[in-house]
């Protein structure tokens, strides 16, 4: 059985943001053709990996809550990828990068410690369910490993970019002295050829596209099954 990533509706691209000190604003993401006309913003990942809804709300609702938080992470990572190489908010990017590992792991622990056992013991479980849950478990492991690597690369990119800007500013202030020592700043992040940005963008898209496929599967198959179980 194969599953294709589900395209998102415009409503799903609405997200609360906390950006440059303006909290609780609402940004609606537009198609790529018009996105360049709008100020870039990174959706907030606040609440990502937070404890699921309390007892009484149901496991299905709690899983939906966790999946929505993971979808917000994907939106934030896509906004970062779209901003490469130079249109990035350094602090917001670092915040997103540092939230990836802890948030992903909390979400996965909830699924594997709560959701999967409920499904396994259900009378509505199909014969294929065990194999499906095993596959999802391996995808969790891959996403955690990939997420850690991505977070490191994001942090390295922001720090290298900041150092390059600092060096460039220093050169501008002391051109002769800097020139006499032969110091050359790193290639500006906005240059047309930026292999580091291209590699990071490729990595970002690989991560959030894979995670979106995983989320879509769980939304379309696990949530309805949990709701049926009750
Ligand atoms: Fe999952």
Q: What descriptive keywords fit this protein?
A:
single chain, 230 residues, mainly alpha, two-stranded antiparallel sheet, 2 strands, elongated, disordered N terminus, binds fe (ii) ion
Commentary on this structure:
Helices cover 63% and strands 6% of the residues. It has one domain. With 230 residues, the chain is mainly alpha-helical. The relative contact order is 0.15. Mean pLDDT is 76; it is low at 1-39 and 176-191. It has a two-stranded antiparallel sheet with strand order 1-2. Bound molecules: fe (ii) ion (FE2). Fe (ii) ion is lined by residues 111, 136, 140, 214, 218.
Order of SSEs:
EEHHHHHH
The profile of the biggest β sheet is: 2 strands, antiparallel
Separation of the first and last Cα atoms: 26 Å
Q: Approximately how much helix is present in the residues?
A: 55-70%
- Quickly give the structural class: mainly alpha
Number of self-contained structural domains: 1
Q: Rounded to an integer, what's the Rg over CA atoms? A: 21 Å
* β-strand number: 2
Strand order of the largest sheet: 1-2
Mean pLDDT: 76
What's the helix count?
6
Strand content: 5-15%
* Uncertain residue segments: 1-39, 176-191
Give the bound compounds. fe (ii) ion
What coarse outline follows from CA principal-axis ratios?
A: elongated
């Amino acid at each position: 059985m194969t599953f294709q990533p589900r395209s998102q509706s415009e409503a799903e691209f609405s997200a609360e943001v906390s950006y440059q000190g303006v909290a609780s604003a609402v940004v609606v993401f537009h198609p790529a053709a018009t996105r360049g006309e709008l100020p870039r913003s990174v959706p907030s990942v606040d609440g990502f990996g937070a404890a699921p809804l309390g007892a009484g709300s149901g496991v299905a609702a709690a899983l939906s809550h966790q999946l929505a938080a993971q979808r917000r992470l994907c939106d934030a990572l896509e906004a970062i990828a779209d901003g490469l190489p130079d249109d990035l908010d350094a602090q917001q990017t670092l915040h997103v990068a540092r939230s990836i590992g802890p948030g992903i792991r909390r979400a996965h622990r909830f699924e594997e410690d709560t959701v999967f056992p409920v499904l396994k013991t259900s009378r509505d479980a199909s014969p294929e369910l065990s194999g499906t849950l095993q596959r999802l478990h391996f995808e969790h492991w891959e996403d955690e490993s990939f997420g850690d690597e991505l977070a490191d690369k994001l942090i390295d990119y922001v720090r290298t970019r900041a150092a390059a800007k600092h060096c460039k500013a220093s050169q501008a202030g002391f051109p002769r002295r800097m020139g006499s020592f032969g110091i050359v700043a790193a290639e500006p992040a906005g240059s047309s050829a930026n292999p580091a940005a291209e590699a990071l963008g490729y990595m970002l898209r690989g991560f959030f596209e894979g995670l979106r496929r995983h989320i879509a599967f769980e939304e379309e198959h696990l949530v309805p099954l949990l709701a049926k179980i009750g």
